[in-house]
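Give me the fold.
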Amino acid sequence: MENCTNHITLEEMDLSVRSYNLLKRAGFNTVGDVNFMTDKQLLKIKKLGKKSLEDIKQKIFNEKGLTEISETDLSDTADHDRINYNMGLSVRTVNALIRAEITTFTKLRQVTDYNLKLIRNIGKNAIAEINAAVPDRIRTYNGEAEELEAYRVAYKLDRDTRHILRRMEAENMKLSELMKSDLQVSYKRQARKLIIAFCDVFPERIPDVISVFDAVGDTGDRLYKTLKQAVNGGTRQQY
């Protein structure tokens, strides 16, 4: 079970100014960040000497009732699955994973490369560290590429359609007028097709589209009538 004191910030500890500054510059923010470090690892911090080490051990380990955990002790503790610095991961990488609520190696094994790249401060070097520490991690899974492509297409469709609808409102312009205008050169010829595709992919957002047509007074458009019929539960006609 995780020690509840691990979330105490370094600011709350009665550390010397020097010890505090050295730990903060090394990327430590909480007691938990320090709790799984050995003496040898702490002494590797730039300019941190034995005097600062004693201060840290006295203030953090003794005053808060924490016990220092060595590398050999980890395999014998209930927390051996907890992500920590003793497994070849840097402070920066561990902190990034913990902020993303990936706190155990079991959970880390299930995170694919794509999702790791979405985490702040996790780049190529961090992923290389993680792969070295967890060689049996799932890098990807069958169907992930297809899911990502579908997401990319849906995202682009959402972005482009919202752009069209915003411009219709901003210019108080009906869809047919938009398609004939000099505005939206990249969209005007495909505006209707984009809105239709958008409504097919995101049917729950059809009311938002209808509200734009209402706002610009485009209630006579065939697409508007078809969407209204779909919302009212009627049989949807061909757009």
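The chain has 14 helices and no strands.
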